[in-house]
Amino acid sequence: APAPGGRAARLVYGSLAGFTTMVANAGGPVTSMYFLACRYPVKAFLGTTAWFFFLVNLVKLPFSVSAGLVNATTLSLTGIAAPAVIASALAGRRLAERMDQRVFEPIIIALTIISALPLLR
């Protein structure tokens, strides 16, 4: 899908998403609105979002380790949560395969607004 606004918009939205996720783990609303504007189909939207945040989190990892955010305690909690995360991802994948675009987009808009509201304080 063509990106709204071209290369400059991708740079601005990508930078804004990267910055907001680094300082507040709040890049989701920015990426959701941009990917909706790109008119990505359900699976492309979800896949692109997952890859974007995977790569951003890889970049953030050394900073998180040096800040003490990644330590033995958080790694053990990650290990405990991993089965639930994997099960949820598989369930989400099945749901995404059945999700109609006309249902998906309003849900994403509503969830984006809900998730952005606490950021306005």
UniProtKB/TrEMBL annotation:
GO terms for cellular component: plasma membrane. Keywords: Cell membrane, Membrane, Transmembrane, Transmembrane helix, Transport. It holds the Pfam family TauE. Signal peptide: none annotated. It is found in: Cell membrane. The chain crosses the membrane at residues 12-37, 44-63, 69-91, 103-120. The keyword Cell membrane applies. It is a multi-pass membrane protein. Belongs to the 4-toluene sulfonate uptake permease (TSUP) (TC 2.A.102) family. This is Probable membrane transporter protein. It comes from Actinomyces johnsonii F0510.
